[in-house]
Amino acid sequence: MNKVYKYYCKVEEVLVGIGMSTIVALTFLNAVLRLFDKPIIYADDVSLLLFSWTAFLGADVAMRHLRLVGMDIVSKKFSPKGQKVLAIIVYILIIIILAILILGGFKIMKINGNRPFNTLANFGIGYGAVTAAMPVCGILMILTCLIKIGKLLIHFKDDSYTLKADVAKDNEGLGEENAGMDMTPVNLDDSKEVL
Asked: pTM for this structure?
């Protein structure tokens, strides 16, 4: 099961990269071609479709790698077990919010799903292809939250275990993913560290 999940994670990351690259390439190419009055008619709609999926899938990837915005000013004051309890509570709140978004996403799909999607309607693509990103990726993000909660519960008694260290271990050699893991404070009075 672990191999399947790791494969799924890699596929999701590749899809996000391809989606983002395609959006940038289409937008740039379309801007250049408009100078010559030869725009790509479908470029804006394809970019909009890809943006909705890339944004939500990217949020799942960011959550998995603990790259969403967070502040640990308060949680650092807690004991290791207290930090884990707080993290579990936060993930439960995220799941509740995601469940609300998923229900809303299904309502939007029901209302607007069959509406033609601008120029892509010529290919049989309705607005439901865009709105489906919210509930589908919301479910994937809930899965990510449940996995994080599971890891915290499994390692609850181990005071040395943190999700940050776990993510860093899974992503050895990725550079930025390990940034800040040493938790060495920066001395701003030392000119070598500042420069």
From this structure: 0.81
